[in-house]
Amino acid sequence: MQALDLEVVEAARRWHAEGHALWWCTVLSTFGSAPREPGALLVARADGRHVGSLSGGCVEEDFLTRLAAGAFQAPAEVIAYGEGAGAIDASGVSLPCGGRLEVLVERWPADARASRELEAYAEALRDADLMERRVPLDGGQCRWKLADAPGPRVERQAGAVRIRVGPVARLVIAGISPVSQYCAQFAQALGFEVVVCDPRAEAWDDFAPGEARCRRELPSEYLRRHPAHAMTAVVALTHDPRLDDLTMIEAVRGSAFYIGVMGSKRTSANRAERLRRSGGLDDEALGRIRMPIGLDLGSKTPAEIALATLADVVRVMRGR
Fold first, then answer.
1. Fewest C-beta atoms under 10 Å: which of 59, 79, 100, 148?
2. Nearby residues of 273 by Cβ (< 8 Å), 6 or more positions away
């Protein structure tokens, strides 16, 4: 999703430089089986050229037809497709299973204000910080600031919309194990950038990384050179204290939104004592580490443990 977001931004910057007015569209909310998640982007020109997606089909066609006919001239407005009050009456649009799609449409003339917005978007998608954009619905000035914490990409307020914009979500897997294999698979299916670190040559023999980036080094060394940004989750999954403990010590120095390590409650208590005594971690740092890792699903198999781990990562990322 974030790669597509950057494609939308770069197309918008080219068109803005050519002098085109832009219609910047953000999916605000979906109900039922609407096909795009909140935060999805589309940018369009008056001549119908566009990049990005709102629904993957019929909504875009109707929107562009209305745009060509002169609709959506307000600086900012919320429109809806599908079921429910206030939805656009569009006979050619059919969202599956009675779905509903709400979209924020901003009209940006080819001026300095639009240039600033696009530059801010590009920086937020490339940099390490998670940013928050507040859009007044009365057409007032948008405001950017550092986000307080991960959470829903879009939140409605009285008279405004808050949108979180940041780098692609990353999962750093510390150490290869049967659980690591499933975590890598699940995370890639969920759209994470996945990095797997393990210095042990023999550990890689049966590991199938898919699209994950593989680093044959200590995870702690990787994190030292690539500090975790605000959209990073770090999970240690080997049961090897020499590897897992060093990872935890380094992970808490970054801005990761999720840090967790596998082990029983007894193992976790012993690890916390080691990290306090030998690693010098205080209560605040230890409080950032989920020990044991994951949701309590009664997981037994490696796949179930990986499922509990990724479910917990997504829960925290979504601000739940």
1. 148
2. none
Strands 160-165 and 154-157: antiparallel
- How, if at all, do strands 143-146 and 131-136 pair? antiparallel
Last residue of a domain, one of 135, 165, 195: 165
- Quick count: other Cβ atoms within 10 Å of Cβ 296? 8
**Which residues are within 8 A (CB) of 277 and not within 5 positions of it... i.e. 6 or more apart?**
none
pLDDT for 198-222, tens place per residue? 999 999 998 998 889 999 999 999 9
Contact of 56 with 50, CB cutoff 8 Å: no
* SS3 (DSSP) at 276: helix
Is residue 164 within 8 Å of 157, Cβ to Cβ? no
Note the pLDDT of residue 21: 97
Residue 54 CA to residue 26 CA, distance in Å, equals: 8
| Percent of the residues in the chain that have a pLDDT greater than 90, as a whole number | 68
What's the CA gap between 304 and 302, in Å, rounded? 5
The Cβ of residue 73 has, within 10 Å, a number of other Cβ atoms equal to 10
Mutual orientation of helices 302-317 and 178-189 as an angle, nearest 10°? Answer: 40
- Whether pTM > 0.85 for this model: the answer is no
Domains identified in the chain, total number: 2
Under the banding of pLDDT at 50, 70 and 90, the label for residue 158 is confident
Say whether both 110 and 249 belong to one domain.
no
d(CA 273, CA 281): 9
Please tell me whether residues 247 and 269 are part of one structural domain: yes
Show Cβ contacts of residue 150 under 8 Å, excluding neighbours closer than 6 positions.
130, 164, 230, 231, 257, 316, 317, 318, 319
CB atoms within 10 A of CB 227: 14
- Dihedral (CA of 56, 57, 58, 59) sign: positive
